[in-house]
Specification:
heterotrimer; A: alpha/beta; Rossmann fold; 8-stranded mixed sheet; 12 helices; 18% strand; C: alpha/beta; 7-stranded mixed sheet; 13 helices; 15 strands; 40% helix
């Protein structure tokens, strides 16, 4: 069989979702942001909710998310996306509102907004991209930077005595009654991509069913910030990030489903 | 018993040469071209097209969504 | 004649917000304006009009909730006092940059820092000259009575939507706390239509997506955006508002707004009863500033005293309007202390001529 016989419209199995615009993504080659963007838009396409969805872009590498996602979007001040989302969702309760944030945005400057939106149980989806570094501003230390990990502001490695331990904000918000679904996923391998897609869909269904806040953390690489090739960074992520930030569901249907006491001790 | 034969089409100008698709391909179909595209990236292509099963692993993991996948069931 | 009630200034704002058909109020407690939030939660406007009232976790969260809701074309407001308004400054700059309509009430207290809870007018610079970063302006309304506190909600919202700009009601602790008779407006319907050319209510197939943002990494485009904003701010002068008292034959002029104006009104009455030709100009919009009327009066009077509850802020704008024609002095009591009509007359005596 010739290749051109296979490449026929009736044989199409996968193509890029039309809900991503034609703009070339501004992310570095191999960055998990791109994959995460596509998954969110695929879920919105599948659920048929493009005209009812409003997204909020953070400050960070994905500040320009609104150039890539073909939905109505608002940019938000650094860390404030959950408050912006609250303002929108409280006034448009039938719309789907989600924030898309990085680790600096969500777990440093935005900690109060994150905790309180979760505590109020705002009926929104929070997509949290955790790559343990401040990518956009040139690779500084983030609250989620691992102990010993080097960054431009921890050039000798994160010293927990001086700078505190990496913050597991996802486990924190899981303990609040307002969160209904809390999960941690990845997008570096195809198996993970499929799981993450399901998790994102579940998150939007939680919003549809008005159950509370759905929080999806995606542990991602930052090959530029970590100074590696994309594939090297994904291997490093598996070896170093995943043991500290283990993948899997943390809270499902309002109940914590793993032994946090054991894990956090 | 049918066998899956697949083929991918890469938008070579949008490919950033990250090679994540290469390591996700279960059949070692994908390689990186010697040539570079307009942005200077070596783009991905089907080096061993006869291996492709159209599993879509490459397409779903691609951060830039540059891969389109086709698949057909053959008779033998 | 509408419904008359005896209310505190803060309560009047809250009641007027419900009646103006506002869609939401996001706030945080701080003295001397917590009554706004308290009154609203007590009134249950979600049952009266469906209006959302939410106590946010901070003033920063509140202004960002306003930003979110304003981007969807809804009528929203927040309120705070001086230190809390400082917290909102980044958010206000974003709202101005993104050209969103909203109302921000500042019930000013003595500063700087945590300061005091007593009234002051020391946030004039912050309100009219920026406060937040960048080349932006707010429409600033300065009420001098409980009635104006109520009236300026609908008026402010109207201006906010006319210009797609944040509007600040610059009040103070005296007006916020005092009780006066107020005629309340009729209940207005809440908005049911939202401009599809810019509001983010969900991209329907008939249009492109709308993006609310103040970011532009292309400096050429950001320059053009800034020029457009400047044109907008210049055009606001058609909405300037002020009030004059006994200015027709005045030889000396007081310029004062808000609580200061109330005190100065008494000073004018006393001066006139002594045969002295004193007048008062009360700016009602602090931006746009009533430059033209002050310039006109500066050709008539011999000297001006800018009376403010601060160390000297509006006096600079008065001097700019006067442009060196006649002497302009400042008299003020910062830090929450309030001067009396006698203090004004003494200040005129000391600074301007005439033995008042």
């Amino acid at each position: 069989m010739d290749i051109k016989d296979i490449i026929q419209p009736e044989n199409l199995v996968h193509k890029r979702t039309p809900l991503m615009t034609d703009a070339t993504l501004s992310y570095c080659p191999g960055c998990g942001h791109g994959t995460a963007h596509h998954l969110v838009m695929e879920v919105i396409e599948e659920m048929g909710i493009q005209q009812d969805t409003i997204g909020i872009a953070p400050v960070g590498c994905s500040v320009l998310a609104y150039d890539f996602m073909d939905i109505d979007m608002s940019q938000a001040a650094h860390g404030r996306a959950p408050a912006v989302a609250t303002g929108i969702k409280r006034l448009w309760p039938e719309k789907y509102v989600f924030t898309y944030q990085g680790d600096g945005d969500l777990a440093a400057i935005g900690t109060a907004e994150t905790i309180h939106a979760c505590n109020r149980g705002e009926n929104i989806v929070i997509i949290f991209i955790n790559n343990g570094i401040y990518g956009m501003t040139g690779g500084q230390m983030a609250p989620t930077t691992l102990e010993g990990m080097k960054s431009s502001t921890s050039p000798y490695g994160r010293d927990t005595q001086l700078m505190g331990h990496p913050l597991k904000i996802t486990e924190l918000v899981a303990q609040l009654p307002g969160t209904y679904f809390v999960t941690r996923q990845a997008v570096h391998k195809s198996g993970n991509v499929r799981k993450t897609r399901k998790a994102i869909k579940k998150a939007f269904e939680v919003q549809r069913d008005k159950k509370g806040l759905a929080f999806v953390e995606i542990v991602s690489n930052c090959n530029s910030g970590w100074k590696m090739t994309p594939n090297e960074s994904n291997v490093w992520m598996e070896e170093h990030m995943f043991p500290f930030y283990p993948l899997g569901d943390i809270k499902v249907e309002g109940k914590i489903v793993k032994d946090l006491v054991k894990e956090l001790m | 018993m049918g066998k899956m034969r697949g083929a991918i089409v890469v938008d070579t100008e949008r490919c950033k040469g990250c090679e994540v698709c290469v390591v996700n391909c279960p059949t070692d179909t994908i390689g990186m071209a010697e040539e570079v595209n307009g942005k200077g990236y070596h783009y991905a292509y089907m080096k061993y097209p006869e291996n492709c099963t159209g599993c879509s692993n490459c397409a779903i993991v691609c951060p830039d969504g540059v891969i389109t996948v086709y698949r057909v069931k053959t008779e033998k | 004649m509408g419904e008359i009630q005896l209310m505190k200034g803060n309560e009047a704002v809250a009641e007027a917000a419900i009646r103006a058909g506002l869609d939401a109020y996001f706030g945080y407690p701080i003295t001397p304006q917590s009554e706004v939030l308290e009154y609203l939660t007590l009134q249950r406007p979600e049952e009266r009009t469906g209006m959302v009232v939410l106590q946010a976790e901070s003033e920063i969260a509140a202004i960002n909730m306003v930003y979110g809701a304003a981007g969807t074309g809804k009528k929203v407001m927040t309120s705070s006092s001086s230190p809390g308004i400082s917290l909102k400054m980044e958010g206000i700059s974003y709202i101005a940059g993104a050209e969103l309509p909203c109302l921000i009430l500042n019930v000013v207290r003595g500063g700087p820092g945590l300061g005091t809870i007593q009234p002051s007018q020391a946030d004039y610079f912050q309100a009219t000259k920026g406060g937040g970063h960048g080349d932006y302006r707010l429409v600033v309304l300065a009420p001098a009575s409980v009635q104006e506190m109520a009236d300026f909600v609908d008026k402010g919202m109207e201006l906010a939507f006319k210009y797609r700009n944040p509007v600040m009601i610059l009040s103070d602790g005296l007006i916020g706390q005092m009780m006066e008779k107020v005629e309340l407006p009729e209940q207005k319907e809440r908005l049911t239509e939202f401009d599809p050319s810019w509001t983010i209510t969900g991209k329907t197939p008939d249009r492109e997506r709308n993006i609310i943002t103040s970011l532009n990494l292309d400096s050429e485009k950001q320059y053009e955006h800034n020029m457009k904003l400047q044109e907008k701010y210049a055009s606001m002068k058609e909405d300037v508002m002020y009030e004059t008292f006994d200015c027709e034959d005045a030889e000396f002029l007081l310029v004062a707004y808000g609580s200061s104006a109330r005190i100065c009104q008494k000073a004018v009455d006393v001066a006139r009863s002594r045969g002295k030709k004193l007048g008062l100009l009360r700016p009602i919009t602090l931006f746009p500033f009533p430059t033209e009327i002050i310039a006109k009066l500066s050709r008539q009077v011999k000297g001006i005293l800018s009376a403010e509850l601060n160390a000297g802020q509006m006096v600079e704008d008065v001097r700019l309007a006067v442009n060196g024609r006649i002497p302009v002095y400042h008299y003020g009591t910062p830090g929450g202390k309030i001067y009396s009509p006698d203090d004004i007359l003494k200040a005129i005596d000391e600074k301007l001529m005439g033995g008042y």
